[in-house]
Specification:
With 215 residues, the chain is α/β, with parallel strands linked by helices. It is 54% helix and 14% strand. It folds into two domains: 4-124, 3-Layer(aba) Sandwich (Rossmann fold), CATH 3.40.50; 129-204, Orthogonal Bundle (Arc Repressor Mutant, subunit A), CATH 1.10.10.10. The chain is elongated.
């Protein structure tokens, strides 16, 4: 079995050390190093990891993902974050993260995210999935409601950064069908690029997740 080489990146020493020890105990994982953000690029060059486990701490996580992505176009990125704000998850995926788990998530979900990322598959914290879908249905704008249910589904998946092939595989249809759905979405909503789709989803509230602490 091929070992998954992992680099742990966090500006918090305790979090970084804890993650390293946790992941090093998992069969099939090999933690090749750890680094603060400012040292991450050099460590990526030194160890060429398969997966970077990125703990966002208090920094802007989307910007952090972009910085790491620019430094390494090979390694897959799994982000550990504290919260999801409106549009946050969509921005993280658009920035280049393959996986997202919350800090309060169990270790098995983190392990699953790392394994999925090593295979270049996306992984979103399971605790968010149902809530995100309900928000999509509830907060769609008049423009989104012009779309068929399948077109709405494809729009949501495109906004979260899934490729046409990934969407086709998940929905069990041909990639050509997904291309047709995308064309219809762009025509109906006057969207030209993936960035347009993400911005539309943000404005429509499709990617918004409410603060669970609110009463």
């Amino acid at each position: 079995m091929k070992m998954i080489a992992i680099l742990v990146v966090s500006d918090e020493l305790i979090a970084r050390t804890g993650l390293r020890h946790l992941l090093a105990s998992v069969p099939g994982f090999k933690v090749v190093g750890e680094a603060a953000t400012e040292d991450a690029e050099q460590q990526m060059m030194n160890f060429n990891p398969d997966v970077i486990v990125l703990h966002a701490a208090d920094r802007d996580s989307a910007e952090l993902v972009r910085l790491v992505r620019r430094a390494s176009d090979h390694a897959a990125i799994v982000l550990i974050g504290r919260e999801i704000r409106a549009g946050h998850l969509g921005l993280l995926l658009a920035a280049g993260a393959l996986g997202y788990v919350q800090v309060q998530t169990g270790s098995q979900e983190l392990f699953g995210a790392i394994r999925a990322a090593s295979r270049r598959q996306r992984f979103i914290d399971p605790s968010l999935s149902d809530e995100l879908f309900e928000l999509f249905i509830r907060h769609g704008t008049a423009g989104a409601r012009q779309l068929s249910p399948r077109e709405q589904q494809v729009l949501r998946m495109l906004a979260f950064g899934h490729t046409l092939k990934e969407i086709a595989n998940q929905l069990k249809v041909s990639q050509k069908s997904i291309e047709t759905y995308r064309s219809r979405i762009r025509e109906k909503l006057d969207l030209r690029t993936r960035a347009d789709i993400v911005r539309y989803a943000l404005d429509a509230g499709i990617l918004a997740v409410p603060n669970k602490k609110a009463s």
